[in-house]
Design brief:
- The complex is a heterodimer of chains A (about 110) and B (about 120).
- Helix content of chain A is about 0%, strand content about 50%.
- Chain A contains no helices and 10 strands.
- In chain A, strands 1, 3, 4, 8, 9 and 10 form a 6-stranded mixed sheet that branches. In chain A, strands 2-7-6-5 form a 4-stranded antiparallel sheet, with no helix packed on it.
- In chain A, a hairpin with a 4-residue loop joins strand 6 and strand 7.
- Chain B is globular.
- With about 120 residues, chain B is mainly beta.
- In chain B, strands 2, 4, 5, 6, 9, 10 and 11 form a 7-stranded mixed sheet that branches.
- Helix content of chain B is about 0%, strand content about 45%.
- Classes of the chains: A mainly beta (about 110), B mainly beta (about 120).
- Chains A and B meet through strand 4, strand 8 and strand 9 of A and strand 4, strand 5 and strand 10 of B.
């Protein structure tokens, strides 16, 4: 399998910074996506990485190291509405996405 | 514009019943995907269409699962003789070629609908 691993749960304080890590099997790697999913809602696209380095998009940034099979999603200036599940998804061959189990983030006041 | 829509949003079925779940992709999106998401898990791939052609159905868990997209737009996922283990959220996603070639690329972003929560009693 592709063994996409991410922490199950994280807690952080409003206004702080949080980093959610994701590791994956490198063989056949063809792109990594991060999605946000609020309970009972559709996953929404956050970021895409296929080359090494950092992609910044407002308060959210995503980093990729292909050689290490490692990515992280960085959320800055946390807001209460950022409480959600964050899904790491890797594309190998074909078009399907292979998802991790998701990281449930709780932002506290 | 309108996103991906799915109906019904909730479905309760008795074990052994057949169900049909509908997905309306974003207008003009060539590719359509179905995923199954169990409680507390990430989505798992079921099947993929490019226009009306079903190019990959490797994720369908059994021959009780059947998907179609006859006119290359709306898709239906049908589950026959439902079992309790079929209880999950069924997500539909669509995407369109990002480049100018008109060909699908593996980099194309998938946009998800809200899902249908199926409960089999």
């Amino acid at each position: 399998g592709q063994n996409i691993d991410q922490p199950t749960e994280m807690t952080a304080t409003e206004g702080a910074i949080v980093q959610i890590n994701c590791t994956y099997q490198t063989s056949g790697f063809n792109g990594l996506f991060w999605y946000q999913q609020h309970a009972g809602e559709a996953p929404t696209f956050l970021s895409y990485n296929v080359l090494d380095g950092l992609e910044e998009k407002g308060r959210f940034s995503s980093f990729l190291s292909r050689s290490k099979g490692y990515s992280y999603l960085l959320l800055k200036e946390l807001q209460m509405k950022d409480s959600a599940s964050y899904l790491c998804a890797v594309r190998y061959s074909g078009y399907a996405l292979n998802f991790g189990k998701g990281t449930s983030l709780l932002v506290t006041p | 514009g309108a996103g991906v829509s799915q109906s019904p949003r909730y479905k309760v079925a008795k074990r052994g019943q057949d169900v049909a779940l509908r997905c309306d992709p974003i207008s003009g999106h060539v590719s359509l995907f179905w995923y199954q998401q169990a409680l507390g898990q990430g989505p798992e791939f079921l099947t993929y269409f490019q226009n009306e052609a079903q190019l990959d159905k490797s994720g369908l868990p059994s021959d009780r699962f059947f998907a179609e997209r006859p006119e290359g737009s709306v898709s239906t996922l049908k589950i026959q003789r439902t079992q309790q283990e079929d209880s999950a959220v069924y997500l539909c996603a669509s995407s369109v070629p990002r480049g100018t070639s008109g060909k699908m690329e593996s980099t194309d972003t998938q946009y998800f609908g809200p899902g249908t929560r199926l409960t089999v009693l």
